[in-house]
Amino acid sequence: MANSPTHRFGQIIGDLLEQATVETVRPIAQKHHMYLDFIHPRPTRDGKRKIHVEDILGNFHDLDLVVEEGGSEEVIGRPRAFIEVAWRRYTKHSKNKAQEISSAVLSCARKYADDAPFTGTVLAGEFTENSLQQLRSQGFVVVHFSLQSIVDAFKTVGIDAYWEEDTPDEKIEEQVKRFDLLTDLEIETIKHCLFQEEKESFEIFAKVLDQSLDRHVSNVSITSLWGSNKSFETIQDARDYIESMNLDASDGYDFIRFEIRIEYSNGSRTTMEFTDRYDALRKLALMDND
Q1: Helix (H) or strand (E) holding 55
Q2: How far apart are CA 104 and CA 90, in angstroms?
Q3: How far, rounded to the nearest angstrom, does the alpha carbon of residue 189 sit from its chain's CA centroid?
Q4: Which of 64, 85, 229, 263 has its CA 20 to 30 A from that of 147?
């Protein structure tokens, strides 16, 4: 049931994870003069809380955190990072959640593939190692809090966050009431404990995100190819043709294509070919965030 104590406790854990993730990501986004969108009323979406991101097929997905280049409370920018946060108590639910995250985030990331957006997820609870490894193999940077780490964090403020399917609702409801009475300092204690539990994972997460947001174009080279296509049955015939070419004479040849190579600050490269001038201009315009 949506209003059951276990559902409410799950919301509490999920909200804390999201707050901890926002606190990790926000300073990195600010460092690169980017905007961090999270679930909150935002003027540019008429004050609605949820983040809706369109994927490459025109479908919309609800996501948790998106870092935008050129974004603000009033302006939607270009996504540079997609981050999902999730809590699942049982593995029977976590398998589907991992697949759901993968499907939604990668569909959106493909639309902005030219920017190579960061994809990450912060998970807690009973996720199978296969589910976690699948996400990693798809390019996600994963932070995972075990169920025990969640239990230990809440225990620091006197709350028992462990339950099974047969645990009485009354017992869980009592823990929810205790949480509602916590001070801000006690809630910060829980988050601090979580950070310490997965400190190394969070540091890796933050480092990869920082490097991804720092990625920018360092050089664009364009080669214009003119001439006519020739095909040969043997290597020797091809060599003979090359040797016989007059490289000083370019007039009169037909245009073949543009070859465009973009080099990025992190060493990555993107190579594209266009036979039409305006296709090349449109593509470069879409990639130009300045």
Answers
A1: none
A2: 21
A3: 28
A4: 64
The amino acid that residue 95 corresponds to is K
Helix (H) or strand (E) holding 152: helix 147-155
pLDDT tens-digit profile of 240-276? 777 777 766 556 677 788 888 888 887 888 899 998 8
What CA–CA distance (Å, rounded) separates 228 from 225?
9
| Cα–Cα distance, 231 to 137 (Å, whole number) | 40
The SS3 assignment for 116 reads coil
Kindly give, in sequence order, each residue whose CB lies less than 8 Å from that of residue 143, ignoring residues fewer than 6 positions away.
120, 121, 122, 123, 198, 201, 202, 205
Q: What is the pLDDT of residues 66-92, one digit of tens each?
A: 999 999 999 999 999 999 999 988 877
217-226 vs 255-264, strand pairing mode: antiparallel
Give me the domains of the chain, ranges plus CATH numbers. 5-213 (3.40.1350.10), 217-287 (no CATH)
The C-alpha angle with vertex 185 and arms to 180 and 187, in degrees rounded to 5, equals: 45
**The tokens 């003119």 sit on which residue?**
226
The torsion region of residue 139 among left (phi > 0), alpha (psi -120 to 50) and beta comes to left
State how far Cα 145 lies from the chain centre.
19
Phi, psi dihedral angles at 269 (to 5 degrees): -135, 150
Q: Are the C-beta atoms of residues 193 and 152 closer than 8 Å to each other?
A: yes
Q: Using an 8 Å Cβ cutoff, are 88 and 216 in contact?
A: no
